[in-house]
Write a structure and sequence with these properties.
By secondary structure, the protein is of the alpha+beta class. The protein is 31% helix and 29% strand.
Length: 167
């Protein structure tokens, strides 16, 4: 399927249960072999959905936001989120928090469109799991480069690196 078959729209409260399932499935797939198996097995679709409900309930005038990806079948196939940087030492004001796509959406071009919608022409940073070669290659292709920042995923100690894009 091609990119026009995929739709982007703002997160709505009615998306949260399905997005919780999709989000955790994407994590279990994308981080297999990169994060501890017991951590991935213990991820909760319900807790994730509760978190999405809190995000969906935020005031509309808050900067940033989340877009969901809707497949040709009408089902959610991922999401992307961006907003003000969360880093104390942020080299840019804007951060790409996540681009998470289920396998059927990968390679369709929808990730490029999602990134464009979330960032526009802004400078931005993002954090990516150091060993996530597919994600790092995508972000590099989209103009991001390693910035030098290093951290660890709080729950697992998995190394993360910061990337930056100057628009």
């Amino acid at each position: 399927m091609t990119e026009p078959d995929w739709q982007l729209r703002p997160l709505a409260i009615e998306d949260c249960d399905e997005l919780g399932r999709v989000h955790m499935a994407v994590w279990r797939d994308a981080y297999a072999g990169l994060m501890p198996a017991d951590y991935l097995a213990g991820l909760s679709d319900e807790r994730c959905a509760d978190n999405w409900r809190r995000i969906a309930a935020r005031p509309a005038d808050e900067p940033g936001g989340t877009l969901v990806v809707v497949g040709p079948d009408g089902q959610l196939a991922g999401f992307g989120s961006a907003g003000p940087s969360r880093d104390e030492d942020a080299p840019t004001e804007w951060e790409l928090y996540a681009v998470n796509l289920a396998a059927p959406a990968r390679g369709t071009g929808v990730a490029d469109r999602l990134l464009d919608e979330l960032l526009g022409a802004r400078d931005a940073t993002l954090w990516v799991v150091d060993g996530n070669a597919r994600a790092r290659a995508f972000y590099s292709r989209r103009g991001f480069a390693l910035e030098g920042g290093r951290d660890v995923h709080p729950a697992t100690g998995t190394p993360e690196v910061r990337m930056i894009r100057r628009a």
